[in-house]
Design goal:
164 residues, alpha/beta, five-stranded parallel sheet
Length: 164
């Protein structure tokens, strides 16, 4: 039987403390950490037998279908923070609605839980949530796996962490 993972929703900008929290939980529970990036500007066409995802952009004028790839910058961040920890971790890239894709993967892998970071509130994030809804709220209301929300760090706390 496949090990039940913790699924970490990886946004375009991943806060180090969110990754650290997911990694700590994964280590404490002795389970795999599945880091998932969802391209919300595209949609899933098919999953190939090797697990590769083919996707297409929502805007038909912007290009043709492509293979969903985990963003290189985020992959480097994961390696920098997780290599050497002894954790069993892997990445997965997909496309579509983030809440729907995370929920689908949680069911498919019988995940222990889903971990998401909460963004600092800004006018842009409020407008985004009004137009698209919150991924966390969608998962909490329409899904049966536990969802852990890691709060954003106050700006002064984040600055102190980066000081030598």
């Amino acid at each position: 039987m496949e090990q039940r993972p913790i699924i970490l929703g990886v946004p375009d900008r991943l806060e180090p403390h969110v990754l650290a929290t997911a990694a700590d939980l994964s280590g404490a529970l002795g389970t795999r950490l599945l880091c998932v990036h969802v391209n919300a500007a595209g949609y899933l066409i098919e999953e190939l037998p090797d697990g590769t995802i083919r996707s297409a952009p929502l805007d038909p004028e912007s290009g043709e279908e492509a293979i969903a790839r985990f963003p290189e910058e985020l992959l480097l961040q994961l390696h920098a923070q997780l290599d050497g920890t002894g954790l069993d971790w892997q990445v997965h890239a997909t496309a579509g609605g983030p809440a729907q894709q995370l929920a689908w993967l949680a069911v498919r892998h019988d995940a222990v839980l889903i971990v998401l970071g909460v963004r600092q509130r800004s006018l842009a994030s409020i407008i985004h949530e009004l137009l698209n809804g919150s991924v966390a709220v969608q998962l909490a209301h329409r899904h049966h796996h536990p969802v852990l929300l890691v709060p954003a760090r106050p700006a002064e706390s984040a600055e102190q962490d980066q000081r030598p």
